[in-house]
Design brief:
Blueprint (H helix, E strand, L loop, with lengths): L7 H14 L4 E4 L5 E2 L1 E5 L6 H7 L7 E5 L2 E6 L6 H5 L5 H8 L3 E4 L3 H5 L12 H11 L17 H14 L4 H24 L6 H14 L3 E2 L4 E3 L19 E5 L2 E3 L2 E2 L3 E5 L6 H18 L8 H19 L6 H7 L26 H4 L26 E4 L2 E3 L2 H4 L2 H9 L5 H5 L6 E3 L2 E4 L6 E2 L8 H7 L13
Parallel strand pairs: 5-6
Antiparallel strand pairs: 1-4, 2-3, 4-5, 7-10, 8-9, 9-12, 10-11, 13-16, 14-15, 16-17
Helix pairs in contact: 1-7, 8-9, 10-11, 11-12
Length: 476
């Protein structure tokens, strides 16, 4: 349990705006602590992001109810012996003042308070919370409705979901303050990771150096850190490999400040020196990233940014002789996805993949649907950008056996000799390279919140291992 980091007026304004968009009664669930092996050993609790946006505090088992312009919290009173174990916690009056709700009431009054109300809500991802929702509201959801956004919700639920998307996709000043702090934490972490890298160490040693910087700032990891010499595995959470000269280390790690996330990827050579082939691939990825970032402007469709990245990457692959053909035509055919299978990025905010509990309802604009083309179907976002929207821009190149050894995916490009595997084999010391930043759309030029984290090839290489006096660990 904690107090909000902002003045209560921040949350009053957010709830007021939500009430203006959704006049029906609304109920938002904070979520339930989840036990790890036994009831008293719980995983760290973090409130549901919609609840956190509207309330600002991690309140276990709390429920927010809004009707006719009034907002109330319902939660369990603190047990009499709780202070012995956890210290004195804030009472209901203090929570009401800090969050700006009309009042806080005991949870045993909730059912009576909801009698006769037809409430709008969002199906929870967590099964325990969803079960509580169903019991309390007398409703059920099919598997396709469990927050996925893949099937229509009830009309009132859909209106609430759309209103939350409208509000949360354009960040207010309070949100941006936290997002900038999270970016600063990520800067410290990535610098520590670069400094702590050296041949003979484990990936976990670098991970420890990165995450120590987050903890030292009172921050959490926004997601499970990826620190790997096997960057061809896109979400590789193994950290047991030994770093060797000649390896590239791909680090995807971001800090979270009061629930607000940062998401950053850098790739650097373990030895502090890129090989010629590694540098060539790295520069292609960097060109694609810079070209994409420059497009983060109001009125631009995000899918067009993705395509720009694909074309720049493909131009580079054609120049190296790995692909043959006209880059635009190759992208139309999906040839780029042989080495760049994922989307260029996603929304970021209270969730590192912001609002993906709502699925494509949040990620895709009205009337737009995912393509079924391999590669393009993994694009998480396709909306027109507006000032206040923050996205990641994260192109990459990967030699993934799961793709290149798949006859269905790679076969057509082998048969017509679009893919030159002999030339690709010359780049065998590149498993995966990704470069990612958090970018705010403004009225003018894009604002890269994570710009201070080195990413030029020479700049990155110079940082590796350059920390002898900095105290970073070098033990296995």
């Amino acid at each position: 349990m904690d107090f909000p980091a902002e003045d209560a007026s921040v949350f009053v304004r957010r709830r007021t705006r939500l009430g203006d968009l959704v006049p029906d009664p609304v109920i938002v669930f904070g979520g339930r602590p989840r036990p790890r092996n036994y009831a008293a050993n719980t995983l760290p609790f973090r409130a549901d992001s919609h609840f956190l946006y509207l309330v600002g505090a991690n309140l276990p088992d709390a429920v927010l109810v809004g009707r006719e312009g009034s907002w109330e919290l319902f939660m369990s009173p603190t047990p009499p012996d709780d202070a012995m174990w956890h210290g004195v916690r804030p009472g209901f009056d203090a929570i009401a003042r800090s969050t700006g709700v009309s009042r806080v009431r005991p949870s045993d009054e909730l059912r009576a308070a909801l009698a006769g109300l037809d409430l709008a809500t969002v199906p929870a991802i967590d099964p325990s919370t969803r079960s509580f929702q169903a019991s309390l509201l007398g409703r059920t959801w099919g598997a396709e409705d469990e927050g996925s956004g893949s099937a229509p919700l009830g009309s009132r639920d859909a209106s609430l979901a759309d209103a939350l998307v409208a509000l949360r996709s354009v960040h207010d000043d309070a949100a941006l303050t936290h997002l900038r702090r999270a970016a600063e934490g990520s800067l410290a972490g990535h610098l520590a990771g670069m400094h702590s890298t050296g041949s003979g160490l484990r990936e976990s040693t670098v991970r420890a150096a990165i995450e120590a910087e987050f903890v030292a700032r009172g921050m959490d990891c926004a997601y499970g850190s990826i620190v790997t010499v096997h960057g061809e595995i896109l979400h590789n959470h193994a950290h047991h490999h030994i770093l060797e000269d000649g390896d590239l280390l791909l680090v995807d790690a971001g800090a979270e400040d009061a629930g607000w996330a940062s998401d950053v990827t850098r790739t650097w050579p373990v030895s502090g020196r890129f090989s010629p082939t590694q540098r060539e691939f790295y520069e292609i990825v960097l060109r694609a990233q810079l070209a994409s970032i420059d497009m983060v402007r109001p009125g631009v469709r995000y899918r067009d940014i993705h395509r720009r990245a694909c074309v720049v990457l493909t131009e580079g692959l054609v120049d190296t002789g790995i692909l043959r053909g006209d880059p635009e035509s190759l992208v139309d055919r999906g040839a780029h996805a042989l080495l760049f299978p994922h989307g260029i990025g996603h929304l970021i905010g209270l969730d590192v993949h912001d609002m993906e509990d709502l699925g494509d309802r949040a990620g895709y604009g009205p009337g737009w649907q995912r393509s079924q083309q391999f590669g393009l179907k993994y694009l998480r976002l396709d909306r027109v950008l507006a000032p206040g929207t923050m996205v990641t821009i994260e192109p990459g190149l990967y030699q993934a056996p799961a793709i290149l050894d798949n006859a269905e995916l790679a076969g057509p490009f082998d048969r017509d000799r679009t893919l030159d595997r002999t030339r690709l084999a010359m780049f065998r010391d590149v498993r995966g390279i990704r470069i990612e930043d958090d970018v705010l759309c403004t009225e003018g030029a894009p604002d890269v919140l994570t710009a201070a984290i080195p990413k030029g090839a020479d700049e990155v290489a110079a940082m590796v291992g350059d920390a002898g006096a900095a105290g970073y660990g070098r033990t296995r």
